[in-house]
Amino acid sequence: MFRIRFHGRGGQGMKTASRILGSAFFRAGYEVQDAPRYGAERRGAPIFAYVRADRKVINERGIIDHPDLVVVADDTLVGMPAAGVTQGMDAHTLMLINSHESAEVWSQRLNTEASILILAAREDVADRASLPYIGSRCAAAAAALCGVISREILIAAINDELAHLSTDVIERNCQIAQTAFDQMSDQSGLVKQGGSLSAADYIPPEWIDMPFEKAEVSNLAIHAGATSVKVRTGLWRTMRPVIDYDRCSGCTWICSTYCPDGCIDVRADGYPEIDYDHCKGCLVCVAQCPPHAIESIPEQTAREQESGEQT
Amino acid sequence: MTAKLLTGNSAAAWGARLAPVDYIPAFPITPQTEIIEDLAFWVDRGELDARLVTLESEHSMITAAAAAASSGVRAFTATSSQGLLYGMEMIYTVSGWRTPFVLVNVSRGLASPITLESDHNDIMAARDSGFLQIHCATCQEIADGVLIAYRLAEHPEVRVPAIVNLDGFYLSFTREPVDLPDASKAAAFVGEYDPENLQFKGNTPLSQAMAVLGGGPYSYFRYETHLAVERALSIYDEVIEEFAATFGRRYDKIDAYCMDDADYVFIMLGSFSTKARDAVDSLRAAGNKIGLLRPRLFRPLPAALLRQWLRGRRAVAVIDQNISMGMGGILHSELATALYGIDKAPLLASYIGGLGGRDISQQEFFAIADELNLAYQQGAAPPVRLLYTRNEMTEMRKLQAIAQAEHAEIRQAEGKS
Known about the structure:
The complex is a heterodimer. Chain A is an alpha/beta fold. Helices cover 31% and strands 17% of the residues of chain A. The relative contact order of chain A is 0.13.
């Protein structure tokens, strides 16, 4: 069975990528199961989707723990434990990352036995995560790496899954997908199908007996204020709002009031300040600011600028 | 006929479309909302000749579905979890009206704590209501199950509403190949809805929900509903024969896998049973004669058939994706009742697993099978086991440590102010 996981951020099209790959396998005569895993289904939040494909009926369900292929559309997710990108990866796994950095760097950084490939894009693309059509690129690259899906079937699957969109958009997706498919074609078949577990030789689950604990321990009390501070939702951001204080009129309330996450405070001097640990990058403030004093820049660019300033 | 990839939610919507339904009262809730979205899309495009109305709550939605069925139209609705509970007053009420319609429930754990993921405590809350219950394990079964549910619910000897249950996420958002029944064959199979004496019209006053004084009349109506639900056991067999003859797919009341020579048995409801199928294959390959039973029909419970399947087996693991606080697994209790006093009854072991979408691993099925072997050798069933690992407890302790640190911080801040 092929077991494939796609990791990305809400809005990058990982559900669509999994569906394109699922449809392609299905057209190629495979039994298929594909599903997205939602939680916080918001733009920028980490999400993943998965595909199983086999020659016989698929009884396995739920999250794939031992993937044959992990596709990462956004390399900033790799370091987030909650995104679970590296979960269950081992020497059998192939990992395909959309990144500026090299496979060697990722191998060292993750200290993994998994094989790593980089999803190629032009070097001058600054924010690779916001590359248009990233979903189709990922699906096409995955299809090529599995080695059992032809280019024609891939294109037919894209047409199946994007049928509700305009002809231009479908056409552009097909072109991008073909390029990604061709770029990976010399690695065709690199993904190896995993087997099933044997009941004759398995590691038993380490079950425990649930202890009784008094309500003061086992109730559900969580102090919202403190919890909100600790969960750094700023990691979801793909675009960063930046205040140009030369233009800011110091109105004292508009951006801070419209911020749906309460991430803009007004300082003692009457000017607003954005809490980047928690700003999710929804850009409502950018749209609301009357003198247009807030602009948005790709998060990646902002981080590179920051690290440049530090060195 | 060619299969296509559909989510469980889409398959449910297709079932309603193919029945076909006339009236769809709706209210959104995750993970069910896509069902209503699909139906609304078709109604909007004129592909489904039905009226879709958004109501202000599940309570009204269920009332509207039953009232519509009382006026002689075929009604369909869907909900999940807290929504089913919010409508629970009407779930119990409308079964007593003896109005047939189909409600799809997408199983999701109940608060508290609140979750979006699947478990069966929501559907179990409707267990004693008088609704029939069909539990699905695949997307194919969902589309087919809705058609079967209409036939069964509308049968003149049954005439109570039916719930078709599917698991959130594991089916609702998961695409699988589904062979959709041909529209004209499906419509012919379900047939025309005959409301008989239910002729609720604006110009013909009719009381559907009368009060009775005294337990005598009350007992009559309540027990008649019970008998009607029980009658669905034999009607189901007729309906399913016809379904198999028409569409080539057979849905016995209890799905039995590798049972002929099984010494040991897994028994469970819903989509996690397909995982158990894989485990049965692996265990058989390793020399363990184990099988799997999955009741499709849960209300009425095919108790006689369960006895037939289980008499003479060595040990049975009941895996409940639900929990009755203060008692344990509900299917386990029901099996114990069904098997009580029969000769050659198997040992019955109870496992609680898959609460709130928690996965059940293949290793866990293997370990359960090992425990059944041991139980047989020792002649006693093991104590109830929650499927919960040391790692999960460690993660839980980390969360608790954060909560406690926060609590201490806040206490300290309060002390200073």
